[in-house]
């Protein structure tokens, strides 16, 4: 059994035991969150109806907070001496899917 869930502005395919990285959520490590299911596949049975998916819950446990890779933004204008350097690391959260209940 697996589900397609909306997590952090993206859609992820998850099954029980999967560890995935999503955008930061304001939950401490060890606590659980619910992910919104968009599709549920159980063997040959595929559920995509919104009324039936309202009864489905996908639970995940927050493992840790993380940061994405460092990216560097450079701005440069020719012949004027203008240079600007900026960096960014996206805050992320690592979660482990604990249950898919239909």
Automatic annotation (TrEMBL):
Pfam families: Ribosomal_L21p. Transmembrane segments: none annotated. Part of the 50S ribosomal subunit. Contacts protein L20. One of its GO terms (biological process) is translation. Keywords: Ribonucleoprotein, Ribosomal protein, RNA-binding, rRNA-binding. This is Large ribosomal subunit protein bL21. It comes from the Bacteria. Belongs to the bacterial ribosomal protein bL21 family. InterPro entries: bL21-like, bL21-like_sf, Ribosomal_bL21, Ribosomal_bL21_CS. GO terms for cellular component: cytoplasm; ribonucleoprotein complex; ribosome. PANTHER family: 50S RIBOSOMAL PROTEIN L21, LARGE RIBOSOMAL SUBUNIT PROTEIN BL21M. The keyword Nucleus does not apply. The keyword rRNA-binding applies. This protein binds to 23S rRNA in the presence of protein L20.
């Amino acid at each position: 059994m697996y589900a397609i869930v909306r997590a952090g502005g993206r859609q992820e395919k998850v099954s029980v035991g999967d560890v995935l990285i999503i955008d930061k959520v304001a939950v401490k490590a060890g606590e659980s969150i619910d992910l919104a299911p968009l599709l549920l596949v159980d063997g040959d049975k595929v559920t995509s109806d919104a009324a039936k998916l309202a009864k489905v819950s996908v639970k995940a446990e927050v493992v840790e907070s993380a940061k994405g890779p460092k990216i560097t933004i450079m701005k440069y204008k020719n012949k004027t001496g203008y240079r600007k350097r900026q960096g960014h690391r996206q805050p992320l959260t690592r979660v482990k899917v604990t249950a898919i209940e239909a």
